[in-house]
């Protein structure tokens, strides 16, 4: 089996630049170009290769002014997460000649396709003539035509005789079961070409014949737009049919639609009804979701003993969301005696199960030596990376902080900036404030108070305390923004009311000395100083 990989650069349309550009007619612009000698060939994921997964990934990525890739996102998936992730990893290794405006390098977005193909091997070669001959009759319910269609799709497969015999045995027992089996083959590309649209057609036939698994799968495909136009209303309709037959996965999925307002108004009470049905049927996700609702009083009265009971049932089935919630119950002493060891046990189980929230929390525990655990910043960074690979902005921000401070990694302001850019691009206020700090102080690049102020403003717009404080300081000094003592005072006030210690101390000094246009007030000065001291003495981390 020969592996073929190629890249296709697309027209670098300006999807959104990282800096503001004046679009005057006199501007001279050049687009970013790739130096493919710097692009390491991506490693074909072993599992994807084993399953003969192929496809084309279209990526959009931000080329920074220094030619590095600052951010990336998937515009169109290959249909296989492993290939998508490998393409994202590969593009970050490339170096580009940045685009320019009037000769000055600027950040800009561009696109590229990664094409993953296989030649040779044992993939079936479709007998298209037979497909055309038998498909219509098979859809009309002709069992023999369905068998011939399965044969045509699996033509040339190494194990064709065995799999066709298995298909015949299924067909002889139940037509709907065979329709579902053909759909599954087409969905997974097992003994048939991978074709999500054709798979959907056969899931529909099985669902219409009353096969509950077909109804569930068709509902899922409508919910997520997989091989069909997304429709929450159709998803709900098919889930209800499956639930009427006692399918507990469908019951939980109906609860999710109500909980998140997908095609219906958000209704936690109705969601709780369906979660309970699923939970009482032994569905682990129903148990986890009902436990979470009982834990927080969402859609039902808060009931911590019942929450613990349902969460423990789900956790016993390795449901990682339930493990996450149990970890927080024990770490906070919420409904159970506080037990850091038990909380940490559940936290690690959830993190190892790829629960992103738990990976972030475990990373903080290890980085800072919390809960009686010896500090291991390098191990902490490992868990933040695991969460960041899932595109989590909090983890990306935490990695930025690790590189900025040299905690668990070698201090690297350029790398810190890269991680902050990713998180800031996802709207993370902490990252926006931190990125502004790097711009303000020239860490990882030139000083740029204007860009610093822009990032602080983004953070302040989200009521981020640090962003407010840093922007207030710029207004006080007149750096990158207009000098304004009154604006600075107002922003310090907002940051202080959000418990930001440095803002409290600045207000204490301002009231003591009559600065920032504030009248001297010894009582207010003492009050803000006391609040700052109280904040300094409080625990740094709270698990929520």
UniProtKB/TrEMBL annotation:
Keywords: Membrane, Signal, Transmembrane, Transmembrane helix. It is a single-pass membrane protein. GO terms for biological process: transmembrane transport. It is found in: Membrane. It holds the Pfam family Sel1. It comes from the Bacteria. This is TonB family protein.
């Amino acid at each position: 089996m020969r592996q073929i990989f190629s890249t296709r650069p697309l027209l670098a349309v300006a999807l959104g630049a990282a800096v503001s550009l004046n679009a005057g007619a006199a501007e001279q612009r050049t687009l970013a170009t790739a130096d493919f000698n710097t692009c390491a060939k991506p490693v074909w994921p072993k599992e994807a290769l084993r399953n003969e997964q192929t496809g084309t990934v279209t990526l959009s990525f931000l080329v920074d002014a220094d030619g590095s890739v600052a951010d990336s996102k998937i515009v169109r998936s290959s249909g296989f997460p492993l290939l998508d992730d490998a393409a994202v990893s590969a593009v970050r290794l490339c170096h580009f000649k940045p685009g320019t405006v009037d000769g000055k390098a600027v950040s800009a977005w561009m696109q590229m396709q990664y094409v993953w193909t296989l030649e040779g091997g044992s993939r079936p070669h479709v007998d298209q003539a037979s497909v055309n001959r038998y498909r219509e009759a098979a859809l009309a319910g002709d069992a023999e035509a369905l068998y011939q269609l399965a044969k045509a799709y699996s033509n040339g497969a190494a194990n064709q005789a065995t799999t066709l015999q298995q298909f015949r045995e299924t067909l002889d027992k139940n037509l709907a079961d065979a329709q579902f089996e053909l759909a599954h083959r087409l969905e997974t590309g097992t003994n048939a070409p991978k074709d999500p649209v054709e798979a959907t057609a056969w899931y529909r036939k099985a669902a219409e014949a009353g096969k509950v698994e077909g109804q569930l799968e068709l509902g899922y495909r409508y919910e997520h737009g997989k091989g069909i136009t997304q429709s929450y209303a159709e998803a709900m309709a098919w889930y209800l049919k499956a639930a009427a037959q006692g399918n507990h996965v469908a019951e939980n999925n109906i609860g999710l639609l109500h909980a998140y307002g997908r095609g219906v108004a958000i209704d936690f009470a109705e969601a709780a009804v369906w979660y309970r049905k699923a939970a009482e049927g032994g569905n682990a996700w129903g148990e986890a979701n009902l436990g979470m609702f009982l834990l927080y009083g969402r859609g039902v009265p808060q009931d911590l003993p019942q929450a613990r009971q349902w969460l423990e049932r789900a956790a016993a089935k390795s449901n990682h969301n339930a493990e996450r919630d149990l970890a927080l119950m024990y770490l906070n002493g919420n409904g159970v005696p506080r037990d850091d060891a038990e909380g940490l046990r559940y936290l690690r189980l959830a993190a190892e199960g790829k629960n992103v929230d738990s990976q972030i929390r475990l990373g903080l525990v290890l980085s800072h030596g919390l809960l009686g655990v010896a500090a291991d910043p390098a191990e902490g960074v490992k868990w933040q990376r695991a969460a960041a690979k899932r595109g989590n902005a909090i983890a990306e921000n935490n990695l930025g902080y690790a590189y900025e401070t040299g905690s668990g990694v070698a201090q690297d302001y350029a790398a810190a900036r890269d991680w902050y850019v990713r998180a800031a691009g996802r709207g993370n206020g902490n990252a926006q404030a931190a990125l502004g700090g790097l711009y303000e102080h020239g860490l990882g690049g030139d000083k740029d108070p204007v860009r610093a102020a822009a990032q602080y403003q983004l953070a302040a717009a989200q009521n981020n305390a640090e962003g407010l404080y840093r922007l207030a300081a710029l207004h006080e000094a007149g750096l990158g923004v207009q000098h304004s003592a009154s604006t600075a005072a107002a922003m310090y006030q907002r940051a202080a009311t959000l418990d930001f210690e440095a803002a409290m101390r600045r207000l204490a000094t301002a009231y003591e000395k009559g600065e920032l246009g504030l009248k001297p007030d010894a009582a207010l000065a003492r009050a803000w100083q006391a609040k700052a001291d109280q904040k300094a003495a409080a625990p740094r981390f709270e698990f929520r």
